[in-house]
Amino acid sequence: KSVPDNSPAKPKTIEIIDPNKAKSVVILLSRIKMTYNEISNHIIHLDNAFTEDILQGLISLKPTFEEISTLQSFDGDIKLLGKCELFFLKISIVNGLSQNLDLLLFRLTIN
Known about the structure:
14% of the residues are buried. The chain contains six helices and no strands. By secondary structure, the chain is mainly alpha-helical. The radius of gyration is 17 Å and the shape is elongated.
């Protein structure tokens, strides 16, 4: 006989970004092995903290204006957002994200 589980249901993760893109972002993040704060700080300060492969991944998977706008207007519990959504929110604070990533890749490839 099974005993009913009376524990409260675990809240469901809210995923806003396209599932295929989100999966690719999560895979990329697992390869970086830094916190979202560390990643965004390295991008802001133009630190040579990433490999060429990682930078190309960040460039190709960076959030679009629409994705950032949608996430920033989300008014639910932020803690329930998926990993991709939380990462996109974190790097959305980087002014000139695209330019910084392109510059980092350029500097890496000319050296």
